[in-house]
Amino acid sequence: FYFRNKHRPFLLFVSLLHVHTPLATTEKFQGRSHHGLYGDNVEEMDWMVGKLLDVIDKEGLKNTTFTYFASDHGGSLEAHRGDAQFGGWNGIYKGGKGMGGWEGGIRVPGIIRWPGVLPAGTVINEPTSLMDIFPTVVQLGGGAVPQDRVIDGRTLMPLLQGTVQHSGHEFMFHYCGVFLHAVRWHQKNSGTVWKAHYATPVFQPEASGACFERGICPCFGEGVPHHDPPLLFDLSQDPSEENPLSADTEPL
Question: Where is the signal peptide (predicted)?
Protein backbone atom coordinates (compact mmCIF):
# COMPACT_ATOMS: atom_id res chain seq x y z
CA PHE A 1 0.00 0.00 0.00
CA TYR A 2 2.68 2.50 1.01
CA PHE A 3 4.89 1.70 -1.97
CA ARG A 4 2.00 2.36 -4.35
CA ASN A 5 0.86 5.55 -2.65
CA LYS A 6 3.85 7.15 -0.89
CA HIS A 7 4.23 9.83 -3.58
CA ARG A 8 0.59 10.96 -3.45
CA PRO A 9 -2.04 11.59 -0.76
CA PHE A 10 -3.43 8.42 0.84
CA LEU A 11 -5.88 7.46 3.57
CA LEU A 12 -5.20 4.26 5.52
CA PHE A 13 -7.92 3.20 7.96
CA VAL A 14 -7.00 0.33 10.27
CA SER A 15 -9.75 -1.08 12.49
CA LEU A 16 -8.11 -3.48 14.93
CA LEU A 17 -9.82 -6.49 16.48
CA HIS A 18 -7.66 -5.79 19.55
CA VAL A 19 -8.50 -5.20 22.43
CA HIS A 20 -11.91 -6.84 22.08
CA THR A 21 -13.14 -10.15 23.40
CA PRO A 22 -12.38 -12.96 22.73
CA LEU A 23 -8.91 -11.30 22.86
CA ALA A 24 -7.40 -13.30 20.01
CA THR A 25 -3.64 -13.15 20.65
CA THR A 26 -0.90 -14.84 18.67
CA GLU A 27 1.37 -17.31 20.46
CA LYS A 28 4.28 -14.88 20.31
CA PHE A 29 2.51 -12.49 22.70
CA GLN A 30 0.75 -14.94 25.02
CA GLY A 31 2.13 -14.64 28.52
CA ARG A 32 4.16 -11.51 27.73
CA SER A 33 2.20 -9.22 30.05
CA HIS A 34 1.81 -9.12 33.83
CA HIS A 35 -1.89 -8.40 33.26
CA GLY A 36 -3.09 -11.68 31.79
CA LEU A 37 -4.54 -12.24 28.34
CA TYR A 38 -5.96 -8.71 28.18
CA GLY A 39 -2.50 -7.28 28.77
CA ASP A 40 -1.05 -9.64 26.15
CA ASN A 41 -3.64 -8.36 23.68
CA VAL A 42 -2.75 -4.74 24.47
CA GLU A 43 0.95 -5.48 23.93
CA GLU A 44 0.25 -7.14 20.58
CA MET A 45 -1.85 -4.17 19.49
CA ASP A 46 1.00 -1.84 20.53
CA TRP A 47 3.40 -3.90 18.40
CA MET A 48 1.04 -3.79 15.40
CA VAL A 49 0.65 -0.02 15.60
CA GLY A 50 4.41 0.29 15.99
CA LYS A 51 5.00 -1.68 12.78
CA LEU A 52 2.72 0.70 10.89
CA LEU A 53 4.49 3.77 12.26
CA ASP A 54 7.89 2.22 11.49
CA VAL A 55 6.97 1.93 7.81
CA ILE A 56 5.77 5.55 7.73
CA ASP A 57 9.08 6.64 9.29
CA LYS A 58 11.17 4.40 7.03
CA GLU A 59 9.52 5.79 3.89
CA GLY A 60 10.22 9.37 4.99
CA LEU A 61 6.55 10.17 5.48
CA LYS A 62 6.59 10.96 9.21
CA ASN A 63 6.51 14.75 8.88
CA THR A 64 3.80 14.72 6.22
CA THR A 65 1.44 12.10 7.69
CA PHE A 66 -1.39 12.84 10.12
CA THR A 67 -1.86 9.83 12.40
CA TYR A 68 -4.82 9.51 14.77
CA PHE A 69 -5.21 6.62 17.24
CA ALA A 70 -8.40 6.26 19.28
CA SER A 71 -11.03 3.81 20.51
CA ASP A 72 -14.77 3.65 19.91
CA HIS A 73 -15.62 3.19 23.60
CA GLY A 74 -14.23 2.68 27.06
CA GLY A 75 -13.41 -0.65 28.65
CA SER A 76 -15.99 -3.45 28.70
CA LEU A 77 -16.18 -3.93 32.46
CA GLU A 78 -18.44 -6.99 32.40
CA ALA A 79 -16.22 -9.02 30.06
CA HIS A 80 -14.76 -11.96 31.97
CA ARG A 81 -13.59 -15.55 31.77
CA GLY A 82 -14.09 -17.42 35.01
CA ASP A 83 -13.11 -15.01 37.76
CA ALA A 84 -10.73 -13.02 35.54
CA GLN A 85 -11.92 -9.62 34.30
CA PHE A 86 -11.04 -9.15 30.64
CA GLY A 87 -12.61 -5.84 29.75
CA GLY A 88 -10.02 -3.26 30.68
CA TRP A 89 -10.19 -0.47 33.23
CA ASN A 90 -11.69 3.01 33.01
CA GLY A 91 -9.81 4.73 35.80
CA ILE A 92 -11.75 7.37 37.69
CA TYR A 93 -14.61 7.35 35.20
CA LYS A 94 -17.93 5.67 35.99
CA GLY A 95 -19.35 2.92 33.81
CA GLY A 96 -18.08 1.29 30.65
CA LYS A 97 -18.90 -0.08 27.21
CA GLY A 98 -22.58 -0.24 26.35
CA MET A 99 -23.45 2.71 28.60
CA GLY A 100 -24.36 5.66 26.43
CA GLY A 101 -24.13 8.28 29.14
CA TRP A 102 -21.52 7.56 31.79
CA GLU A 103 -18.01 8.87 31.12
CA GLY A 104 -16.36 5.43 31.39
CA GLY A 105 -18.32 4.25 28.36
CA ILE A 106 -17.67 7.19 26.06
CA ARG A 107 -14.52 9.04 27.19
CA VAL A 108 -11.38 7.71 25.50
CA PRO A 109 -8.02 9.34 24.75
CA GLY A 110 -7.11 10.39 21.24
CA ILE A 111 -3.41 10.21 20.37
CA ILE A 112 -2.29 12.29 17.41
CA ARG A 113 1.10 12.43 15.66
CA TRP A 114 2.19 14.84 12.94
CA PRO A 115 5.78 15.93 13.68
CA GLY A 116 6.05 18.34 10.76
CA VAL A 117 3.01 20.32 11.86
CA LEU A 118 1.99 19.63 15.47
CA PRO A 119 4.32 20.10 18.48
CA ALA A 120 5.03 16.97 20.53
CA GLY A 121 3.86 16.59 24.11
CA THR A 122 0.82 18.87 23.85
CA VAL A 123 -2.17 17.85 25.98
CA ILE A 124 -5.60 19.17 24.97
CA ASN A 125 -8.39 18.58 27.47
CA GLU A 126 -11.38 19.33 25.27
CA PRO A 127 -14.33 17.13 24.26
CA THR A 128 -14.14 15.97 20.66
CA SER A 129 -15.80 13.12 18.79
CA LEU A 130 -14.89 10.37 16.38
CA MET A 131 -17.38 12.14 14.09
CA ASP A 132 -14.69 14.84 13.81
CA ILE A 133 -12.45 12.53 11.77
CA PHE A 134 -14.54 13.00 8.62
CA PRO A 135 -14.37 16.82 8.35
CA THR A 136 -10.71 16.75 9.47
CA VAL A 137 -9.73 14.33 6.70
CA VAL A 138 -11.78 16.26 4.15
CA GLN A 139 -9.98 19.48 5.11
CA LEU A 140 -6.53 17.86 4.98
CA GLY A 141 -7.36 16.43 1.57
CA GLY A 142 -8.28 19.86 0.24
CA GLY A 143 -11.99 19.11 -0.09
CA ALA A 144 -15.18 20.60 1.31
CA VAL A 145 -17.80 18.87 3.46
CA PRO A 146 -21.29 18.55 1.92
CA GLN A 147 -23.36 21.71 2.26
CA ASP A 148 -26.78 20.11 1.68
CA ARG A 149 -27.01 18.55 5.15
CA VAL A 150 -25.95 19.08 8.74
CA ILE A 151 -22.51 17.58 9.44
CA ASP A 152 -22.17 16.74 13.13
CA GLY A 153 -18.37 16.58 13.14
CA ARG A 154 -15.99 19.54 13.42
CA THR A 155 -12.51 19.69 11.96
CA LEU A 156 -9.88 19.12 14.65
CA MET A 157 -7.17 21.23 13.01
CA PRO A 158 -7.88 24.62 14.67
CA LEU A 159 -7.85 22.94 18.09
CA LEU A 160 -4.70 20.94 17.35
CA GLN A 161 -2.84 23.94 15.91
CA GLY A 162 -3.86 26.18 18.79
CA THR A 163 -5.78 28.76 16.76
CA VAL A 164 -8.79 28.06 18.99
CA GLN A 165 -8.82 27.03 22.65
CA HIS A 166 -12.15 25.22 22.80
CA SER A 167 -13.74 22.37 20.89
CA GLY A 168 -16.28 23.27 18.22
CA HIS A 169 -18.84 21.14 20.09
CA GLU A 170 -20.85 23.30 22.48
CA PHE A 171 -23.28 20.41 22.96
CA MET A 172 -22.70 16.67 22.60
CA PHE A 173 -25.52 14.13 22.67
CA HIS A 174 -24.77 10.68 24.06
CA TYR A 175 -26.95 7.81 22.93
CA CYS A 176 -27.25 4.19 23.96
CA GLY A 177 -28.48 2.59 20.77
CA VAL A 178 -31.22 4.97 19.57
CA PHE A 179 -32.05 6.19 23.10
CA LEU A 180 -30.73 9.53 24.32
CA HIS A 181 -29.14 8.97 27.72
CA ALA A 182 -27.14 12.16 28.35
CA VAL A 183 -26.24 15.59 27.01
CA ARG A 184 -22.98 17.48 27.60
CA TRP A 185 -22.87 21.29 27.55
CA HIS A 186 -19.44 22.84 27.17
CA GLN A 187 -20.24 26.33 28.40
CA LYS A 188 -18.79 28.94 26.05
CA ASN A 189 -16.01 31.19 27.35
CA SER A 190 -15.77 28.97 30.42
CA GLY A 191 -13.97 25.84 31.48
CA THR A 192 -17.21 24.41 32.87
CA VAL A 193 -18.65 21.26 31.33
CA TRP A 194 -22.16 20.31 32.47
CA LYS A 195 -23.62 16.84 31.91
CA ALA A 196 -27.31 15.96 32.22
CA HIS A 197 -28.35 12.31 32.46
CA TYR A 198 -31.91 11.55 31.37
CA ALA A 199 -31.64 7.77 31.73
CA THR A 200 -29.07 5.58 33.47
CA PRO A 201 -28.79 1.79 33.78
CA VAL A 202 -29.13 0.26 37.24
CA PHE A 203 -25.83 -1.30 38.20
CA GLN A 204 -25.76 -4.89 39.47
CA PRO A 205 -24.48 -5.00 42.18
CA GLU A 206 -25.49 -1.42 42.88
CA ALA A 207 -22.03 -0.07 43.78
CA SER A 208 -20.14 -2.01 41.10
CA GLY A 209 -20.30 0.53 38.27
CA ALA A 210 -21.37 -2.18 35.83
CA CYS A 211 -24.15 -4.69 35.06
CA PHE A 212 -22.35 -7.89 36.04
CA GLU A 213 -25.54 -9.91 36.53
CA ARG A 214 -26.82 -9.10 33.02
CA GLY A 215 -23.45 -9.28 31.30
CA ILE A 216 -23.97 -5.84 29.70
CA CYS A 217 -26.16 -2.88 30.60
CA PRO A 218 -29.41 -2.44 28.62
CA CYS A 219 -30.24 0.79 26.78
CA PHE A 220 -33.94 0.92 27.62
CA GLY A 221 -36.78 -0.82 29.42
CA GLU A 222 -36.55 -2.55 32.75
CA GLY A 223 -33.36 -1.64 34.53
CA VAL A 224 -32.99 1.80 32.89
CA PRO A 225 -34.93 4.38 34.93
CA HIS A 226 -35.55 7.89 33.57
CA HIS A 227 -34.68 10.95 35.63
CA ASP A 228 -37.02 13.94 35.84
CA PRO A 229 -35.39 16.31 36.52
CA PRO A 230 -32.25 14.84 34.97
CA LEU A 231 -29.17 14.03 37.03
CA LEU A 232 -26.82 16.98 36.60
CA PHE A 233 -23.04 16.95 37.05
CA ASP A 234 -20.28 19.53 36.72
CA LEU A 235 -17.65 17.41 34.95
CA SER A 236 -15.00 20.08 35.35
CA GLN A 237 -15.23 19.62 39.13
CA ASP A 238 -16.60 16.08 39.35
CA PRO A 239 -15.28 13.99 36.41
CA SER A 240 -16.20 10.76 38.23
CA GLU A 241 -19.89 11.79 38.22
CA GLU A 242 -20.28 10.94 41.88
CA ASN A 243 -22.17 14.01 43.15
CA PRO A 244 -25.32 15.03 41.26
CA LEU A 245 -26.11 18.71 41.70
CA SER A 246 -29.37 20.17 42.95
CA ALA A 247 -30.90 23.64 43.06
CA ASP A 248 -29.60 23.87 46.62
CA THR A 249 -25.99 22.94 45.85
CA GLU A 250 -25.79 24.71 42.47
CA PRO A 251 -28.25 27.61 42.06
CA LEU A 252 -27.13 28.28 38.46
Answer: 1-26
